[in-house]
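Researcher: Please generate the 3D structure of the following complex. Treat every line as part of one assembly.
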Amino acid sequence: MKELKLMKGNEAIAEAAIRAGADAYFGYPITPQSEILEYLMLERPHERTGMIVLQAESEVAAINMVYGGAACGRKVITSSSSPGISLKQEGISYMAGSELPCLVVNVVRGGPGLGTIQPSQSDYFQAVKGGGHGDYRLLVLAPQSVQEMADFVGLGFDLAFKYRNPVMILTDGALGQMMEKVWFDEQKPRQTVFPSWATTGKSTDRERNIITSLNLDSLKQEKHNQKIQDKYKKMKENEVRFEKIECDNAEYLFIAYGTSARICQKSVQLARERGIKAGLLRPITLFPFPEKAVLELANLVKGMLAVEMSTGQMVEDVKLAVKGKVKVEHFGRMGGVIPSPDEILIALENLIKKIS
Amino acid sequence: MTEEIIIAGFGGQGVLSMGKILAYSGIMQEQEVSWMPSYGPEMRGGTANVTVILSDERISSPIINKFDTAIILNQQSMDKFENSVKPGGMLIYDGNGISRHPERKDINIYRVDAAEEAAKMESARTFNMIVLGGYLKIKPLVKLENVIRGLAESLPERHHSLIPVNEKAILRGMDIIKPVQEL
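Model: Done. Output below.
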């Protein structure tokens, strides 16, 4: 039986982690995502499912605890906000190199540096282009509602284990702090059978399992790089997710994810009230990016406006996908300022003027 | 039906919890709801505000800059949000501490002196429920019984004994709200 709650996005992630049968959460508090750790502490999941919740001494410690849990084949989740995610990058790179599954939640706040505690989308590059050192990618999910904050936890774990790769939920302070209705699935049991690669103690009938990202033989390292690149290719073939809103007869297109996508839905309504045929393409996976869908729409519309709470990061992926077929511009606010539906509409009207 | 509301005042006035009770009430009558707070230093004093949307349809943006109703509980919020009310919309305010009263001519304006009333009732903490009662008198979007159910959902069980006091405050707010300007 599904269960209905009114919850903040942060709380929904925490509850969904328990229900997805997570084995452990390791984290360190930072606004605007502290409710994840607070909710888990209050809820005492150890009594519900045996799930461990631990406040580490730092973000660096937390991500290395995640590494340890994941190496044992456990479902492990951590969360932070922008400055804390920067601290975790070394560990995330090691996990990508060691092919370890885990779920990392980034509830983005405005940067650079300590920046602000208000919502932003300025960590797009860091999330989709690797983030730490080395040639790797995360599979990145971008929820737009409290419901999706909950749904993407279970999905994220499934994808992380399917590809043996860290998955990131890239969200922001607005979605973390706002409350909406959310339906929860029933409690899933925690796993009792672990993947064959997990370091759970060597039995006599097999070789040792080794989890490492160190390889001093360059040719072997290159082969390993090729192997993980093949996984990213498979993700591009199989895991692209997006939503089209009012795209069928659209002449102008917003492209936006997360909070910006929600605001753009209002801008689409306002535009259509004024007779502008606007639509919205909402990438749900940011890596892999919905390149084909963007290219298909580039052949149908007169112009595209990428709306992000940043100086323009995703817009680069949009331009790459469009291959110059249509004019692409960016509109964004920074530093924790959330654009209003009206100002997004004005930006679209300015784009239309330039084209016609 | 879609109602887009901003409630704004000082931190500690119960702005966020008033919005939460309204959101719960909406859920009780199977509406879509969103509750978007200001967060951060506001929670430690200063100004606090929350945007609540109740709708029969899927809610697009939880973040908006034009409101059907503004409920304004201090001067800073009056300065900030008076102009955010849609033409023909509604502004409700508590006169306590207001030095510049609303000036718009194209909106409905109501006054509910909840701070004064809460003091008379010797129940300062029901201030926000008096305001809520005033709002529901003018716009009965949610039924009183659903507000009470919403209260029961949003209050921890150990505080359920406070529900009758809150109900009384809502009813009192319905009595004392008065029109300043009706279109």
